[in-house]
Amino acid sequence: MVRMKPVIALVGRPNVGKSTLFNRMTKSRDAIVADFAGLTRDRHYGDGRLGDREFIVIDTGGFEPDSSSGIVKEMAKQTRQAVAEADAVVFVVDVRGGLSAQDHDIARYLRSVNKRVILAVNKAEGMQESPLLAEFYELGIGEPVPISAAHGQGIRSLTEMALEPFEFEEDEAPGDDDQEGLVVKLAVAGRPNVGKSTLINTWLGEERLIAFDMPGTTRDAISVPFERHGQRFELIDTAGLRRKGKVFEAIEKFSVVKTLQAISEANVVVLLLDATQGVTDQDAHIAGYILDSGRAVVIALNKWDAVDDYQREMLQRSIEQRLAFLKFAPMLYISALKRQGLGPLWKAIADAHASAFKKMSTPVLTRLLHDAVQHQAPKRAGMFRPKLRYAHQGGMNPPLIVIHGNSLEHVTDAYKRFLEGRFREHFKLVGTPLRIEMRSSR
Ligand code: GDP
Ligand code: GDP
Q: Could you say which residues bind GTP 1 here (predicted)?
């Protein structure tokens, strides 16, 4: 069964500290925070984690529901959409700026939407006992929770309050569950119009594919279990799957949240691109998220039936420029509409899945390591020559190889890539990231 990550939306007027809080909750690398209003106009999505509970955070631009200027309207729309996508809302206000008319407008809106709302009073460093906090009861949202996003105070308990009603699966070590590694959990990700629904409908319409009854679903998660040539799959919805009589049907309804949730639940993601369009910004964003998630990935270039020579060249160039970081992913040329290239796509999916769950024994890994070192030893760094002693597998999905030895902090990235190539070649790892960790004993 698939249980999707809960989604927390951060809303509030500009400059109250939403982006700062977003960065705290997601520890995102590309933190964009500056001391002026309205820098984050769009919605930003990030992964959050509290202990072993994972969730998605959405940050929105500011919100001024009653103004008529274009940007403000757009921001209000972004906020409404974020709230609609969220399971819980954190309404951020600013204790130093005090209550404003905008805060009241937002509060009125939030009271009308029937969602879990937590009121976070930000910039409250050193003000936990301040009588100023009580003022915010006026909003009718409930108890104000003092936090300091900038100083990291109160964030944990705020997050706990937001997540309180949601159940989480027990965290299982990879391979603990008998099912893990047997069922291919599959998601098709891509921006609108690349052909996701067409592909899914083509798949689900195949007679060699037996779709089972839909299991109990949680939080809108729909997944369709099926079997193909004896291999069990579970297709995790990104495209608005719904049941129509006895068959499933994909309806086009793009949702960033659904895409992110499906990617994190899947163990193989098919990144679907429109070959007639080349790689767009949106494609690259989705690809980046897949990479961060550590999932196995297969790139399918769809609409191959409609590609002319010029488009082919443009496609080639945009792949090299924008998807270089997914070099480990196999690339398939397909037509979902004309049912072309689907056999090889299934094979690539199965191979990527097998790679993600490959078992690698310590003796074999260690032998490969020694062979590699003999072929080309790591460079000396000053007084230190890294000594690579043995290797073991530290995890699956994605595979992790842990190398033990001495002075390993001096192993260069180039050398790590060299080792990765040797391991990949031997174990025939395709379509999965491979992580290598160096563990020095002193
Ligand atoms: P947003 O417009 O709501 O996303 O607000 P930002 O996250 O961009 O923050 C606006 C300003 O408030 C920035 O100058 C932040 O450094 C500052 N800020 C954010 N959190 C805190 C806090 O906890 N305490 C204080 N004193 N300043 C904060
Ligand atoms: P989604 O938004 O990603 O689910 O995309 P759809 O499946 O709705 O497809 C968008 C459009 O692309 C539709 O008009 C499809 O008929 C068309 N399309 C999908 N796959 C192919 C294909 O393989 N070749 C061609 N020529 N068109 C396709």
A: 12-19, 59-63, 122-125
